[in-house]
Structures are given as C-alpha cells and as structure tokens.
Amino acid sequence: MSESLLARHRAVLPSWLSLYYEEPIEIVSGSGRHVTDADGNTYLDFFAGILTNAIGYDIAEISDAVRRQVDTGVLHTSTLYLIRQQVELAERIAELSGLSDPRVFFTNSGTEANETALMLATQHRRSNQVLALRNSYHGRAFGTVGVTGNRGWSATSLSPVKVSYVHGGYRYRSPFRDLSDADYIAACADDLREIIETTTSGDVACMIVEPIQGVGGFATPPDGLFGAFAEVLGDYGIPLISDEVQTGWGRTGEHFWGIQAHDVTPAAMTFAKGLGNGLAIGGLVAEAELMDDIDANSISTFGGNPVSTAGATAALDYLLDRDLQANAAKLGGQLLQDLRDRAENSALIGDVRGKGLMIGVELVEADGTPAPAAATRVMELAKAHGLLIGKGGLHGNVLRLAPPMTLTEHEAGQALQVLADSLAQAEQEHH
Ligand code: PMP
C-alpha cells in the first residue's frame, strides 16, 4: 500500500481504527475467493473481509441485482413508503427463521440490530437487566458495548444496561474446561441460575448469546448448551436472543442458524455481515409479541433500503440455490480435522475449534499461556505467502479462519499448506 495513504489514514481517522499487518494493505479488487491489493499482490481470502464477503467476490447475480436497482435512479427514498424488495426479503427470512409468528426489521449493521433487540427486550420486560456471556462481542454502540464482555472491545464502561455475565462462551480457559460436555453444560446452567438469583432482581429483559463467539476467538460451546440455558431462562420468563451476525446463513455447516445446534428456538435472532455479501445490511427477526411491543414510528432511515435488500435477496438466493451450507460443512469438516491432526504434533497449537467455515486455532506458549505474538507472526507469514487470515480472542492469540462459502477443495488445500508452513516456521522461531 502506498505510504501516503497510510499516513493520511493515520492523520485523519481515529487512532482506534486499527489496521492489520506491519504493512497494511489496500484491497482494490476481488474475484471468487481472491482479493488483489493496490500493489498488485493477490491473496486467498480466508477471513472474507471479516465475514462480510461470506459468499465470495464479484458474484454477477448479486452485483446485477444491485445494479438493476441503481439503474432505476432510486438508491433510496424513505422507509415511509412501501419497498417491495424489503417485503420480499423479510418474507424469506421470516420463513427461514423457524420462529412462530415472526416479524423482521432491517438495520444497516449488526450493532444496530443488537441495539434494537436490546431496546425491544428492555421495553417488553420493563427492565434494563441483561444477561450475556463472558468474552462476548455484540457491537460498540452504547447498549451493545454494555453487553460486550471482552474488555479489549469495551470502549466505555458506562452502559445504560445492567449486565451480568455468565460462563458458557469461552471454555478453553474456563474453570470448567476439563469437564465432560454434559457436566460442562450442567455447570454453566447452574452458574446461569445462580447469577440470575444473586445478581438480578429476577425480572431480566433478556439473555443475548453468540452461538459461536466470533471476535472472542471462534469459541464454540458444546451442542445443547443454549437449550439447557433456555430451560433456566424459562423459569423466569426471560427471552433468549441469538446473535447470528457471524453464525447465520449456513456458515456453521450443520445448521442454517448457529443456535439450531442447541435444540432451542430463541425469541429473536439478529443478523448482519454475510447477509449482503458486503452490502451494509443487518436486522433482526423476532416473535411479533416482542417486536411489536413498542409504540414508535419507524426507527431507521436507511435500514431496509432497496439497494441493500435487493442485493441481500440475490445473495440469499445464491447461497440457497447452490447449497453453500453443505459446502461449508464438507470443507469446514476437512479443515478442522486436518488442523486437529496437526495440533497433535505442535507445541504452538493449544486448541482447534469451530464448525463449518468458522475455525479457530488457539496458539499457546509451552506453559499453556496465550501466545499473541506467535499469532501475529503466523498472520504475517501467511500473508507473505498469499493467504489472509484473521485473529481474535480475549488475548489476541487465536487465528481465525472464515473463507467465503464458495470455497473449493483445491483452495482449502492451498490454504492448509500455507498455514501449516507458517505455523511450523513460527513455532521454530518462537519455542
Ligand atoms: N455481533 C457479532 C457477533 C459480531 O461479530 C459483530 C461484528 N464483529 C457485531 C455484532 C457488530 O456488527 P457490526 O460491526 O456490523 O455493527
């Protein structure tokens, strides 16, 4: 990337708008699973623009749908008028949700979707007490930052909601780590009940969870955990909200929504990121009882605009028609297995986890403590060999793999090779 753009970025944008890599890249074009930077380097994108380009780059069907809307001369007018594309997309999502009597509301981002969900739940239950998981990330507006349990992402501690955090998200460094899955679920459910009984009045607005914690390092709870949580919550009439911003649209392979691995139907699900394959769109689907319990006019100017909803409908068609969920299950399963096999002989890899095309590799020191410097090094080495990956987790020591869902077997193999070489070199340098 040109020096001057980096200097201009630093001079005019906030200091916390941080960039990946010692030499940050400017992506100028994309095709399939590849992106090209301003210097002409091409990379296989195993972070898919942090899950925005969930399907891939330069998909004609999606671009054409957007272009057709742009060609009408109307990018947007107002949500005070009927918008056909918005109604159509809402119908599709309502049907896919599996919720009883669902209503859909569109926003421009995941943060706004979660803000809306929190507002609805607090109003519906007349309470500002909320339950969330430790190590969570739900956004960085005033309400959502309050339910974000990952300190590195909590920009302010002043929050309008009163939050109690429970175990159940990040198992690897939790006191319950070595329990069997069944005992782990029981311990977390007990913890939830105790937290409700001892830190809240019992009149809690909602519990919000990520089925797999994204920013938190693809921390993956055992199947059934949130079903057990729902039983506890049911005793108090507390609605469960599933934040599907990273886990929705089939990315986890086995289910269309991440929460479905837990045999529970939540009161609401929020979504964003991958839905528009890069377009700014988010939203939530909720039971009408929850969605319609506010007395207000429309609460978003741009949410559900015709450009975003037309593009998102085309993206949804594309991923359903090609059964990309099955592709995520197949290739994700292979990647996970291969990485787990490699972990056996690697002192650097402490844990490999995830589902479908959402895989986390936690790097550790010889004594098991987090190894964030090694994660940064692996990312740099992978980039030098044409592979973009991400990192995350409370300690910044978890490599995150989340390629577009159109990934091919050949590309999966290429990525594994680069990753294996990068991990081996980093391990050699590190230990
Ligand atoms: N929820 C989750 C689970 C997320 O991963 C994110 C983004 N990292 C958000 C909410 C916030 O979404 P956005 O950045 O679109 O506001």
Order of helices and strands: HEEEHHHEHEHEHEHEEEHHHEEHEEEH
The Cα radius of gyration reads 21 Å
Largest beta sheet: what is the strand line-up? 4-10-9-8-7-5-6
**Estimated helix fraction:** 25-40%
Number of E-state strands: 15
Note the total helix count. 13
Report the sheet with the most strands, covering strand number, pairing sense and barrel closure: 7 strands, mixed
Bound molecules: 4'-deoxy-4'-aminopyridoxal-5'-phosphate
Unreliable sequence segments: none
Task: Report the β-strand fraction as a percent range.
Answer: 15-25%
Structural class: alpha/beta
Look at the structure and give the mean pLDDT. Answer: 95
What is the global morphology? globular
End-to-end span in angstroms?
32 Å
How would you describe the overall organization of this protein?
The strands form three sheets. This protein has a seven-stranded mixed sheet, with helices on both faces. The chain starts with a helix and ends with a helix. It is 39% helix and 16% strand. The chain is globular and about 60 Å long. The chain is α/β, with parallel strands linked by helices. A hairpin with a 2-residue loop joins β1 and β2. Bound molecules: 4'-deoxy-4'-aminopyridoxal-5'-phosphate (PMP). 4'-deoxy-4'-aminopyridoxal-5'-phosphate binds next to α5.
